Amino acid sequence: MKLATWNINSLKVRLPQVLDWLSANPVDALCLQELKLTDDKFPLDAFTELGYQAVWAGQKTYNGVAIISRETGSAMVRNIPTMDDPQQRVLAVTLPAPGGDVRVICAYCPNGQSLDSEKYPYKLDWFQHLNRWVAQELKNYPRLALLGDYNIAPADEDVHNPAKWVGQVLVSEPEREAFRALIDLGLADSFRKFEQPEKSFTWWDYRQFGFRRNAGLRIDHILLSEPLIKQCTACVIDKEPRANEQPSDHAPVIATLNLD
Q1: Which end of the chain has fewer beta carbons closer than 10 Å to its terminal beta carbon, N or C?
Q2: Closest to 201 measured CA to CA, from 181, 184, 219
Q3: Residue of 129, 119, 199 lying closest to 151 (CA atoms)
Q4: Catalytic: which of 149, 158, 189, 220?
Q5: Active site residue 108
Q6: What are the two backbone dihedrals, phi and then psi, of residue 197, each rounded to the nearest 5 degrees?
Q7: Global pTM?
Q8: Nearest Cα residue to 37 out of 66, 72, 74, 76
Q9: Cα-based angle 84, 129, 60 (whole degrees, multiple of 5)
Q10: Which of 28, 52, 108, 249 is catalytic?
Q11: Is 93 exposed, middle or buried (0-12, 13-18, 19+ CB in 10 A)?
Q12: Is residue 141 among the annotated active site residues?
């Protein structure tokens, strides 16, 4: 089973890139973030023509998430149930898989904007709600994968120039603590299970030739529960789509599971 996550930064703009990528990388589930379109504009037919199902939570201009899957999902949850939040950031479905169902959660976590912005405490509060909800989900679904754009670089090794980022969002200690709190629930960072190249990132700023200079951050993650991490055989970042014309500023991350 292959699970992937990709912040596509406008599905309307980059639908052809997503379809091309899926054709070349036939994963079992692809979690998309930043759809930036309303529910009625979701291009379901384009995915069904490739043999995929889809669930989505759209929002005009900002946010929006989707799970594209080979099999039809069940027990869908839209948004964190305990949080009254109009922003469309979370979807969860249960997918059939060898050895038992897998709960897949797609999350587009808040950015926070800056440490002195009102969006920063919102981000930290949002993560607390996410943590409490995922804790309950793990009780119901031991085989759980939490994929998405976390907008957190967990450690300095996930930052191209840590000194340059001191005092900014994505790397602050409260944000990193929120990430560790998810790990403490019994999840594992699938990318760090394996030896990886130095300076491995998933996001590069459009400005100042960020991708060309590899001046990036690793902020897109696939966290797996203990039963799944034991069966994870690979986790890679696919940098190729970032070199496309008019690319997303993020690259896909793919985890491979040998389920039985």
Answers
A1: C
A2: 219
A3: 119
A4: 149
A5: yes
A6: -60, 145
A7: 0.98
A8: 66
A9: 45
A10: 108
A11: buried
A12: no
